[in-house]
């Protein structure tokens, strides 16, 4: 696939990952006052090593920090230990909790809200023990049941019940979705799915292609719920473009699981338009991440157009902000097949994009060959 051009198989560099975490935190309404990094072969029970932990304590005190956000998913023990080691009232959360927070604030439809709530509960479940362990120690002796322990069990049961109820409600919503999908299939209008890293410009593109009026903003995860709009191609043929939730590195498994139904809409698509922000210094990582999430969802082998968006922000060929890969592509007279350069805000390259979609639609889907023998 064309996106292979960018493949480098590397995780987002630590600095880039931290700056993304900062963006997420700002999106959630926090003010970022500083960051601290450490390279460890394996995180400790405190997540950080002893020296760094001391440094963190001092910074928290000096800057009167009220929340510490770690750029990985913390184990319940790590979270508890860190919280105990720091000042009282300092909250310790991890990347997953932060993403869940942003998602919770963004979800608008009933399905979106249910999905986020499911992910939140799944995330909370293994962490309940930690929250009540201080009570456990007050508990009785051998063979008796401490108040903490029974509290954990009550809480677990409540959460488990809630999870069951949400799953049931989601099942109903997804049946409605199936009906809608079947109707769409009957109408025979091909679906083009916009996928890409969060903030790549998917919603802006949908708005530019149609008059969709989808919220597009310079914030991570502005879209959580799928939006579908009809677009007429040059040939007069109609296609449905769908815009959906953006991807991000280290997307929490609880979220992928909860959003599976939404994400699987992509599987229904005839064509995928992978939108990427060409002005990002992390372009190749973003492309890699999106491809690997698609692979996880077993969505491969779909005809794909790679739409390199925000070309208006590029100072021009020869610029090396994007490492050594982009200039190569820009230097070429023509982008490689399956790649188009666009600017969704400036309406540039949209004809090329639709042309590419049209070309892919014209490519017959493989038909099982039948051998008839006399
Ligand atoms: N300069 C420039 N900015 C753009 C372009 N396309 C999108 N943007 C900006 O990029 C930001 C993110 O755009 P969205 O359309 O919300 O991105 P998205 O991919 O839908 O993001 P999520 O819904 O969060 O996954 C907005 O501030 C847009 O105005 C473009 O072609 N050029
Ligand atoms: Mg969007």
Count the beta strands: 8
Shape: globular
Tally of helical runs: 13
Strand numbers in spatial order across the main sheet: 4-5-3-6-7-8
Report low-confidence residues grouped into runs of 5 or more. Answer: 1-10, 132-145, 317-324
Kindly list the characteristics that best describe this protein.
alpha/beta; 8 strands; disordered N terminus; binds magnesium ion
Describe the structure in your own words.
- With 374 residues, this protein is an alpha/beta fold.
- It contains 13 helices and eight strands.
- The protein has a six-stranded mixed beta sheet, with helices on both faces.
- The longest helix is centred in the middle third of the chain and has 41 residues, at 147-187.
- Guanosine-5'-triphosphate is lined by residues 196, 198-204, 216-218, 220-223, 246, 309-310, 312-313, 343-345.
- The site of magnesium ion (MG) has 7 residues, from helix 8.
């Amino acid at each position: 696939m064309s996106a292979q051009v960018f493949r480098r198989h590397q995780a987002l560099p630590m600095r880039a990952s931290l700056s993304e975490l900062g963006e997420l935190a700002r999106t959630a309404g926090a003010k970022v006052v500083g960051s601290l990094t450490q390279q460890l072969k394996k995180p400790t029970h405190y997540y950080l090593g002893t020296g760094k932990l001391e440094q963190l304590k001092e910074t928290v005190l000096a800057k009167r920090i009220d929340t510490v956000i770690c750029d990985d998913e913390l184990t319940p023990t790590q979270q508890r230990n860190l919280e105990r080691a720091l000042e009282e009232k300092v909250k310790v959360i991890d990347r997953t909790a932060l993403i869940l927070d942003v998602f919770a604030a963004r979800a608008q439809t009933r399905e979106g809200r249910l999905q986020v709530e499911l992910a939140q509960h799944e995330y909370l479940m293994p962490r309940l023990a930690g929250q009540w362990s201080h009570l456990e120690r007050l508990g009785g002796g051998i063979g008796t049941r401490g108040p903490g322990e029974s509290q954990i069990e009550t809480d677990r049961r409540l959460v488990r019940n809630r999870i069951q109820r949400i799953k049931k409600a989601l099942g109903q919503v997804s049946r409605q979705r199936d009906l809608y999908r079947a109707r769409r299939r009957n109408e025979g209008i091909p679906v083009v799915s916009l996928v890409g890293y969060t903030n790549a410009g998917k919603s802006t593109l949908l708005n530019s292609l149609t008059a969709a009026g989808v919220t597009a903003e310079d914030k991570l995860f502005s879209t959580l719920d799928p939006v579908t709009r009809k677009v007429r191609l040059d040939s007069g043929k109609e296609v449905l473009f769908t815009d959906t939730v953006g991807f991000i590195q280290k997307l929490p498994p609880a979220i992928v699981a909860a959003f599976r139904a939404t994400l699987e809409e992509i599987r229904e698509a005839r064509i995928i338009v992978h939108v990427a922000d060409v002005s990002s210094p992390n372009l190749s990582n973003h492309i890699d991440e999106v491809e690997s999430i698609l692979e996880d969802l077993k969505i491969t082998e779909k005809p794909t157009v790679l739409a390199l968006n925000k070309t208006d922000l590029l100072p021009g060929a020869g610029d090396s902000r994007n490492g050594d890969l982009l200039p190569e592509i820009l230097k070429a007279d023509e982008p490689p097949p399956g790649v188009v350069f666009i600017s969704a805000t400036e309406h540039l390259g949209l004809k090329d994009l639709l042309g590419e979609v049209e070309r892919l639609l014209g490519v017959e889907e493989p038909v099982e060959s039948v051998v008839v023998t006399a």
